[in-house]
Amino acid sequence: MKIKKAIIAVAGSGTRLLPATKSMPKEMLPIVDKPIIQLVVEELIEAGIEDIIFVTRWDKKPLEDHFDHSVALEDDLRKNGKIETAEKISKIADMANFIYVRQKGPYGNGTPVLSAASLVDDEPFVFVWGDDLVKSKVSFTKQMIEDYEKNEQLMIGVQEVPREVVNRYGIVKLREGTNEIEDIIEKPSIEEAPSQLADFGRMILDQEFINILKETSLGKGNELWITDAIKKYVERGGIFLAKELKDGQWLTTGDPLNYLKAIFAYAFDREDISGDLHAFICSQKEK
């Protein structure tokens, strides 16, 4: 079955980026001149996704507005001769079929899947965290979908991280000589971490996984964790793959330092600003 739907979790509060996120969703913070969430959506569109389901909360209206037409703005741009910019703005609303549902249920990164479960009944789908960027020449989601079309196995994106930060992520243990997950632990201590492969917000899931997630108990911090459901899925004999990111970069944006790193990573790819940006950084080092 072709994967045409994606769920994006965007119900987080962005507390580590306050006060910037006091009245603006963290997913709408800019990476140069595009909000984080638009870069995520563009990755999905490149992968052939047609229906995008945002799992939101009460304060995400600016995000919803971004993916809608802004007739007044588009008209003003055209009247001022900025036709190319007007067309660029207009196309955002037509990138996909956008659907919005409110998150309900316990706190945790598994809850968005359950909140949107009725919209992805009996079909595989992509699940994405709205503040995780994956910078690569070929859409990482597209790479995952191509793998799924060959083997029809569920999977999650992983990338090796320094050992001193394994306690921030879900860490996977692979079966020897394969990319099959044998075990997965949410935020283990450095001593108990089975590897340095951290999971991140790119997954392919299906109805069977949803059924397991529904009966998964709350875990660490009294939250509903995707990692706990993956662990249960594997324990029941299911094959769940780890898709390692190669020739690309996973960029988190949930705290000031990593947010700035993401901005620089994308800015240095821009021919129109990269040279001046390099010069500015060098000038600051000299002060």
Polypeptide structure, described:
The strands form four sheets. Strands 5-4-1-6-11-8-12 form a seven-stranded mixed sheet, sandwiched between helices. 33% of the residues lie in helices and 24% in strands. It contains ten helices and 13 strands. Helix 3 (71-79) runs antiparallel to helix 4. The mean pLDDT is 94. The protein starts with a strand and ends with a helix. The longest helix has 12 residues, at 140-151. The chain has a single domain (5-267), classed as Alpha-Beta Complex (Spore Coat Polysaccharide Biosynthesis Protein SpsA, Chain A). With 287 residues, the protein is α/β, with parallel strands linked by helices.
Q: Span from first to last CA?
A: 58 Å
Proportion of helical residues? 25-40%
Mind telling me the CATH class? Alpha Beta
**Topology order in helix (H) and strand (E) letters:** EEEHEHHHEHEEHEEEEHHEEHH
Give the averaged pLDDT, no decimals.
94
Question: Could you state the CATH homologous superfamily?
Answer: Spore Coat Polysaccharide Biosynthesis Protein SpsA, Chain A
CATH architecture descriptor:
Alpha-Beta Complex
Classify the beta-strand content into a percent band. 15-25%
SS element count, helices? 10
- Derived from helix and strand composition plus strand pairing, the structural class reads alpha/beta
Number of domains: 1
What oligomeric state do the depicted chains represent? Answer: single chain
